[in-house]
Here is the input.
Amino acid sequence: NERYINKIGVNTIWISPINKTTDKAWQEYPEPHRFYTGYHGYWPVSPDETEPRFGTLTEFKQLVKAAHQHDLKILLDFVSNHTHIEHPYYQNHRDWFGTYDLPDGTKNIRRWDEYRLTTWFDTFLPSFDYENSAAAVDTMTDNAIWWMTETGIDGFRHDATKHVPYHFWRELTRKIKTEVSPNRNLPVYQIGETFGGDDLIKSYVNNGMLSSQFNANQYFILRRLFTDENSDLNELQTAIEKSNTVYGYNNLMGNIIGSHDQIRIMGLLEGDITLSENGVARAFREPAIKVDKQSTYQKEQILLCYLLTIPGVPIVFYGDEFGMTGANDPDNRRMMRFDDELSAQEKAQLLVFSKLSKIRNQFACLRRGDYLNLYTDKNVMVYSRGDSDNRLIIAFNKCQKDKNIVISPPGWMTIPSLEPLIGTVTSDIEGGKVSLIIPALGYGILQIK
Here is the structure.
């Protein structure tokens, strides 16, 4: 009701699964055989009951209604790959599920790529055997439609997309288009989660299946480049160009700088944890991860600028908008904080994010415009986004020294002057060339006037 989401310029909320989950701790099969609970929501034990610790179905409907009244959309996380063994579907329909016992005597547990469509996440999380059970496909796609029509949500984030066969997604999308879309003013948005090559990721994104997937490959490159001083931004530029080639400039792929499955970006930028460490194990060790360096906030501001200006849909993991830190799960799921619970630096970071978000909302070229790289070296990247109404230039510098660069725009790009919209980049134009001074760990968005 205080409109926090509106104030920071966000228009959609992705909510993790709200299905009722098991209330017991379960021991994982792989070493070190830790005990876990289903606090995250991905171990459902009911197809239509909500987790009582979150609230009732009626309360969730009220939340969706309130969001719509504030011009916000709701995406609900839908788990189609598996259930928990306490789920009535598994209890009553074992023939809908596969087995984790392989002919060679080994266990098909977390063999993500070798047995992509049949592997189990654990011994207590049975995967559906959609290839051999039409009843399972029909039941689970109907369940997804029920959540849409019953609650009024606007779309889905689909868990473990690559572990579910194509025909499931075709059937779900067919039902959405015939049973849901005719009664909606906006198309239903479906975003999947797949870790793998671009060919695999793209194979799920088309008119007959999903709207998009998370652009995880670009994210993995991005975080490595900003935690290694010897890295080269040309690698990021190559990744952006590849993404544009595979998905197009006006793609709906989900760009991220963090997620609930990864180490918090601020923990990496601060140097409290490295990519080579076990982020889950670090979550349970002292000292607690916290942000001490001003430079960490500066680095994240660059990443936020990148996130809100490249082609695709920016997706912000809660807390990243003000610099929340942490290791991996469960330390990356710290309680959300607001207002006076934020430090002075976190409040300043939130203001930067809000300004960047406002600029994205103001300029359609950042949402649907072209993309043109103007300059890239080891530490500096400069690119342009434009359409028939506006053209912007975005620049950032990831090193600890100021950089002065000169770019020669293409002949069709006339630049009489540049007006800074945000950041500390200064410019000078002479003889058709543009000089940019980009401070250490600085960034800027400039509008061609």
In short: The longest helix spans residues 344-362. The chain has two domains: 4-367, 369-448. The CA atoms of residues 223 and 265 lie 7 Å apart. The longest strand covers residues 370-376.
